[in-house]
Design goal:
The protein is an all-alpha fold. It folds into two domains: 1-98 and 116-134, no CATH class; 136-190. It contains nine helices and no strands. It has helices spanning 19-24, 28-48, 51-71, 77-95, 105-113, 119-134, 138-148, 153-160, 164-183. The chain starts with 18 loop residues before the first helix and ends in a 7-residue tail after the last helix.
Length: 190
């Protein structure tokens, strides 16, 4: 399972589609996109446990990104590529959900009473959370990640170099501003 990639993510960026241009103009955004593509490829292979299916997911993602890039400019191509690959993997996983043997009739009955986990929804939530954290500034992201890990507020404040109340305020403000930026303004209260 090598780390070869069958596609070049720079094919989707206008003006970055030739090897000559890649060599002449070193662009950090292109390097970032290449890195994202390789990470998402490795993630797809791990998640699907099949290199062939991972390549199918990458191919589907490539078509999605190519379609979108032809109709409009993509502000953050690396984030768009990551989301496209994750959606493609989710589609493949939801098509091929494995059946598990659960045992006797009593086991089946107890299994039917268990709440069902929606793997696709869980993956979409993780992707959204990643996009949400990526949209925050570095200090706010650090506070939010520590808060999500359930670190003590005192420890969070000490790490960031502020008071507990200031850390809480920074988190609240960062969450509100990021929500507005990603989801748009909320509905007016009646």
């Amino acid at each position: 399972m090598g780390d070869r990639s069958s596609t070049n993510p720079l094919l989707w960026i206008t003006g970055a589609d030739s090897e000559k241009e890649e060599k002449e103009f070193k662009n950090p955004a292109h390097d970032k996109l290449r890195g994202t593509w390789q990470r998402m490829r490795r993630w797809a292979v791990r998640r699907l446990r099949d290199e062939g299916q991972a390549e199918d997911a990458l191919q589907e993602a490539m078509f999605r990104v190519a379609r979108a890039s032809h109709s409009s400019a993509i502000a953050q191509p690396d984030a768009y590529v990551a989301t496209a690959v994750a959606r493609s993997v989710t589609n493949i996983l939801t098509e091929d959900e494995p059946l598990d043997f659960v045992g006797s009739a009593e086991d089946v009955e107890s299994f039917m009473r268990l709440p069902k986990k929606d793997a696709a929804k869980e993956l979409e939530d993780r992707i959204f959370m990643g996009e949400f954290l990526a949209a925050m500034d570095e200090e706010s992201r650090e506070i939010c990640q520590k808060w999500l890990r359930r670190d003590e507020w005192k420890d969070i404040a000490d790490d960031v170099g502020c008071s507990v109340q200031q850390a809480k305020d920074k988190l609240r403000n960062a969450i509100e501003s990021t929500k507005k930026r990603l989801l748009g303004p909320g509905r007016p209260k009646k």
